[in-house]
Amino acid sequence: MALTLEDVRRVARLCRLDLSTRDEARMREQLDAILVYMERLQSLDTSDVEPLAHVHDVTCPQREDEVTASLTGEWAGTPFCVPKVIGGE
Amino acid sequence: MSELTSLSLTEVASKLEAKEVSSEELTRACLARIAAVDGKLGAFVRVDEEGALAAARASDERKERLGPLDGVPVGLKDLFSTKGLETTASSRILEGYRPPYDATVVTRLLDVGAVVLGKLNMDEFAMGSATTFSVSGPTRNPWDTARTPGGSSGGSAAAVAARLCFATLGTDTGGSIRQPAALTGTAGLKPTYGRVSRRGVVAFASSLDQVGPLGRSVRDVATVLEVIAGHDPRDSTSMDVPPIDMNAAFGGDVRGLKLGVPAEYFPAVGTNPEVLAVVRTAIDALAKQGAEVVDVELPHTDYGIACYYIVAPAEASSNLARYDGVRFGRRADAAQLEDMYARTRSEGFGPEVQRRIMLGTYVLSAGYYDDYYLKAQRVRALVKRDFDRAFEKVDAILTPTSPVTAWPIDRQSENPVEAYLADVFTVGANLAGLPGMSVPCGFSEDGLPIGLQILGKPFDEATVLRVAHAYEQAHDWHLREPAAG
User: Fold this and answer.
1) B450 — phi, psi (to 5°)?
2) Which tens digits make up the pLDDT trace of B210-233?
3) pTM of the predicted structure, to 2 decimals
4) B385 vs B325: CA distance, rounded Å
5) How large is the C-alpha radius of gyration of chain A?
6) B3 and chain A in contact, CB less than 8 A
7) Closest CA of chain A from B147, distance in Å
8) If phi over 0 gives left and psi between -120 and 50 gives alpha, with beta otherwise, what is residue B126?
9) C-alpha separations of B200 from A52, B70, B105, B234, B388 in Å
10) What is the ipTM, given to two decimal places?
C-alpha cells in the first residue's frame, strides 16, 4: 500500500517538522521508495526469534541510592536565567 | 616541516620521547599543513590554534610524559563535545553551540596530553556515507579531490590521509569509520559496542553508535584505542570488561588463526569487481602468511540494510527530539510553541536528517510499530545469530569494507535506497555489536584506495588488531601518500 500525502502530514506532525507542499511531495516519493525496499523483511520467518534491543546480555546498571554532588564547581548554587522561549530575545 | 607530518603517530611519539622534536614544532607543522592544504579538502571545520599551541607548550613543559599521545596533534569529528569549543555535528541546528563539558573520550585524550587541533567535518548528525550532507560543504578525498572521502567521518579520514594530524576520532553507526577509512587508504576501527564511552557524543542511534580511532597504521590506531577505551559509569551502555590485550595484538602473527570468508560479501552484482579481486588477493596473502581460510555463511546479509535503515532512523527520531529550540542550539521566531518547534527543526535540520526522522517516526508510530520496528529487531537477532554461528568456526571474518571505491561528489543519487546500499558490508557489525576494522589493501586501476575489513568476536579487538597488523606489515599500502597538497 503506497504512502499517501496524508500519511506524510501525520508523521510530520508527530515529529514536529514543517514541510512545504513541494517538500511534502518529494518526501512522500522518497519515503515510499524506502518503504517498498523494506517490504523484503516481511518474507523472513522470524517466529522463533525475540526482538533484539541490545547486543549484550545486560540489564541497566544501578548504583546505591545516595545523594552525590550534582552541580559542582562553577555551576554550584547558581540559578539559571534564560531568555523567554516565546517572545524572548 | 612536511617531513614531520609524514611521520606516523608511533614515530612521532618516539621522537617526542627522545626530545628530538617538541610538541610545539609538531603542532605548528600540522597547523601549517592545514593552512596550505585543507582549503582544497575541507576536512577541518574549526581549527583551535590558540588552544592547540597552549596544549603543546604545556606538553613541552612537562618533566615526565603522560604517555605516547602526550604532545601529539589530533583531530576530533565535530560531534564530540569539547568544552567551550563550538560543536555542531555539522548541523545548522547546533550552530554556535558551545558544550559546557568535554565528552568522556575527549577528557581521556586531554588527560594524557594529546593536542586537539580542532573539529572535523562530517555528515550532519552522522547520517550519510559521503560527508556531503554538511552545513560546511563537502570534504574532498585527498586521493582525488573530485571524489568523496566517504562518510560520515569523512573529515576524520581525510585529515589522516592528507597528513594534517597524526590520528583522529570518528564514530561508526553503520560503517562511518570503516568506510571512509577504506575510501581514503587509512586504518579505522569500530570497537565492540560498549567498549568506548558514548557520554558527550552527539547521539544518532544509541544501540549502534560507537567511537573509534582513525590513523595511518594499525599500531597508531591501537595506541589511541587504548586511551579512549574503558568503562565509564556515566554511560550506562558502557561495559565493564577487561582491557584489550595489546601483547596478544602485536606479539604474534596469523599462523594458526582461522579466518572466515562469507560468500554473501562477494556478490556478483552491486559491487565493483575490482574491489572484490583486490580483497581476494589480500585474503590469499593472509593465507600465505599462515592463516587458515575457511568458508562461513552469513545468510541474512541481504536483509541487513533494510534492518539497519529501520532501527537507526527509529532511534535517531527519538534522539533528535531534543532539538526543539528550547534548551540549546538554534531557536526560530514564532508566536506559538508548536510553530517554534516545527520551524526550528525544519530550518535547522538538513534534508537527509529530516528524511530519517520522518522514516524513524513512521516505523515507530501506532499501527506500523509491529510490522516495521519490531520486525527489524527480530531480523537484527537473526543477523547477530549468523555471526555467533560463524564465530564458532573462525577467529575473525574477512570482507571488503565498501562495495565501491570513492565516487564523484557531484554524483548524488536521486534514489535514497541506492545511497544506503553503500553500507551493505559494514552495517552487520553495528547490528551485532562486533568490533571491526578496515585497513588499506590495494588500489583500483584508477588509483583509488580499497579497504579490507576484519570483523571479530565481541570484545576480541586483540584478534582484529593482530590480523590487521600482520597483513599491514607484509605490505606497504599504508605508507603511500596521496598527491593532494
Assistant:
1) -130, 140
2) 999 999 999 999 999 999 999 999
3) 0.97
4) 41
5) 23
6) no
7) 25
8) left
9) 25, 22, 8, 10, 31
10) 0.94
